[in-house]
Write a structure and sequence with these properties.
Length: 95
């Protein structure tokens, strides 16, 4: 847990938020040497060795029967039928 002044917080808030949100760090914000507030992560992350490979692999945020998964499967099926397109390939114009 790091102790920072209000002035330091103003100067480095974005960096501190990143450390809190993604690094799980905690800060005590002090004014004139007196602790005034604590900056802590909103949610404690669950550490897991297995990360989801795709968005459809994420479970727990939505019910299993949520329409999102039906739409996701429709998009997958459609993409399997279509030939992949390279967005960086330029079409040659014939003269």
């Amino acid at each position: 847990m790091q102790n920072v002044s209000v002035a330091e917080t103003r100067q480095h808030l974005a960096e501190m938020l990143g450390k809190v949100a993604y690094g799980g760090e905690t800060f005590i914000i002090s004014k004139k040497g007196r602790p005034m507030a604590r900056l802590v992560p909103l949610l404690q992350r669950k550490t897991s060795d297995k990360k989801p490979a795709t968005l459809g692999d994420i479970r727990g945020w939505l019910d299993d029967d949520d329409p999102f998964f039906k739409h996701l499967e429709m998009i997958r099926e459609e993409s399997r039928r279509e030939k992949p397109v390279n967005p960086f390939h330029r079409k040659k114009h014939s003269k």
